[in-house]
Amino acid sequence: MSYWPLLGIAVVVAGFALRLNPALVVVAAGLVTGLVAGYGPLGVLELIGEAFAKQRYLAIFLLTLPVIGLLERHGLKERAQAWIRRMRGATAGRLLVVYLGARQLTSMLGLTSLGGHPQTVRPLLAPMAEGAAEARLGDLPEASRERLRAMSAATDNVGLFFGEDVFIAFGAVLLMQGFLAESGIQLEPLHIALWALPTAICAFAIHATRLLRLDRRLAREAAALLAQASAKSDRKDAP
Amino acid sequence: MISLQWIYWLTGTYIAWVALLGWRDRGNPRRRASALFWGLLALMLLAADRLPPVVVGGVVVVLACLAGFGGLGRGRYDESSAVEKAAEAARLGNRLFWPALLIPAIAVLVAVPLANLEIAGVRVFGREHTTLVGLGLACLVATITACVLTRQSPASAIEQSRRLIDAIGWAALLPLLLATLGSVFAAAGVGDAVAALATQAIPVENRFVVVLAYGLGMLVFTMIMGNAFAAFPVMTAGIGLPLLVNVHGADPASMAAIGMLSGYCGTLLTPMAANFNLVPAALLELKDANGVIRQQVWTALPLFACNVLLMYLIIFR
């Protein structure tokens, strides 16, 4: 048993700790791992090149950017905010809870491309969450605004991750089934997929609770900002 | 037949155009490095399957160096004022939503009901990666629709996407690099080494400790690799099958399912999962690149605890 290939993991961990650029760290780890496994300099490059050519499809998401960029220039975000302001009873937290549930359910049906960061979170979900919060609470401090935007992205991730595994034709389920079959354990994909349900329910409960608490926190922060502003103007009025 | 190759050509041509516009952008202090980065990525999309693998590997190293030493810059972009945006939003109204909603609608249409569509006995969409083919076509149709709606040219759509693509920068490349690293790790036998190490380090007769080790292994290895798919074969071959299934008689289906989801908790916690954590932080213009991860910590950790508990309660039934 050779432990030398573990050097690659050590490179990744060290790169993490030193806060080096992750792209550089990952390629360095690949080169080191290939070399200690005895591939030779050209062999390593060949190994990396072959794998990279197969993984290129991960860059296709960039194609969503022209339509989003163009629509944003023509007021997409502003429109999304105006739309959500008209809904009474909408708060940022409630909006995100509804999105979380919808994202989980549609992912369970295999409709994972209904959401996503470039096509849904940036142009629609995050502006709507901000719009809902401002319609109710007035101006928000910059830090709260940032937190709300980050939470919108986090909600999309949680909804996707803990929904898609329940869908039988999803890559992860097929990967598990294929891997277990190779190890001599024959299982139906549905059998594996159904066991993702308990975690999916826990994920909804935990994240939805946090989202509803976020509403209260935003209200506190907006009130503090207002108090600060009025204290300032009071001082100005004093002789 | 519309295959993934067409979508690669489409994406490659688009990125090449972005590289050319970036080269001409004198507002970007690092315009040459940026243009070279996107130009090489475009070349990879267009021709990586025709070039010798050694050359592709060399280009990957150059891309990583461009990202790592000095990095890419931000330029000057043709942006509209807040007043213009508000006026356009009022003029176009809810029609603005349609092109954005077309992307998921068409992608799902191609991936599910039309996946096996045949015209005169010939498949319309390639059998492999139909979802990606659908996504590519959806983006094309949505862009054209948005151009018609706003009376702009596709060239101005590409110009408008530059501020987004420059904001994402090198993070766009990280998922590809990590997937590549996964292949290298597999070829070099990293999984076997991890498994051997884990078996020596834990008291294998205690069920709960083994469950915890399997879950933690998935979590930590996913954080390192940025991807639970890379961690699953390593941890399941190393701990799951030999110890939980063979020694303690666990049910493999529920063990695999919940084990994978323990890995997903790790995905929420790592900057290595760039497409889920760093790219949105850039897209949402957060000051803190790890802002999204910070919001995910207190969902991921309690959920991981739930996963370990669920595994312990379910798999030994």
TrEMBL record, chain A:
<keyword id="KW-0812">Transmembrane</keyword>
<feature type="transmembrane region" description="Helical">
    <location>
        <begin position="58"/>
        <end position="76"/>
    </location>
</feature>
<feature type="transmembrane region" description="Helical">
    <location>
        <begin position="158"/>
        <end position="180"/>
    </location>
</feature>
<feature type="transmembrane region" description="Helical">
    <location>
        <begin position="192"/>
        <end position="212"/>
    </location>
</feature>
<keyword id="KW-1133">Transmembrane helix</keyword>
<keyword id="KW-0472">Membrane</keyword>
<protein>
    <submittedName>
        <fullName>Putative membrane protein</fullName>
    </submittedName>
</protein>
<dbReference type="Pfam" id="PF06149">
    <property type="entry name" value="DUF969"/>
</dbReference>
<dbReference type="InterPro" id="IPR010374">
    <property type="entry name" value="DUF969"/>
</dbReference>
UniProtKB/TrEMBL annotation, chain B:
<keyword id="KW-0472">Membrane</keyword>
<dbReference type="Pfam" id="PF06166">
    <property type="entry name" value="DUF979"/>
</dbReference>
<feature type="transmembrane region" description="Helical">
    <location>
        <begin position="170"/>
        <end position="191"/>
    </location>
</feature>
<keyword id="KW-1133">Transmembrane helix</keyword>
<dbReference type="InterPro" id="IPR009323">
    <property type="entry name" value="DUF979"/>
</dbReference>
<feature type="transmembrane region" description="Helical">
    <location>
        <begin position="32"/>
        <end position="48"/>
    </location>
</feature>
<feature type="transmembrane region" description="Helical">
    <location>
        <begin position="211"/>
        <end position="244"/>
    </location>
</feature>
<feature type="transmembrane region" description="Helical">
    <location>
        <begin position="256"/>
        <end position="276"/>
    </location>
</feature>
<protein>
    <submittedName>
        <fullName>Putative membrane protein</fullName>
    </submittedName>
</protein>
<feature type="transmembrane region" description="Helical">
    <location>
        <begin position="96"/>
        <end position="117"/>
    </location>
</feature>
<feature type="transmembrane region" description="Helical">
    <location>
        <begin position="129"/>
        <end position="149"/>
    </location>
</feature>
<feature type="transmembrane region" description="Helical">
    <location>
        <begin position="296"/>
        <end position="316"/>
    </location>
</feature>
<feature type="transmembrane region" description="Helical">
    <location>
        <begin position="54"/>
        <end position="75"/>
    </location>
</feature>
<feature type="transmembrane region" description="Helical">
    <location>
        <begin position="6"/>
        <end position="23"/>
    </location>
</feature>
<keyword id="KW-0812">Transmembrane</keyword>
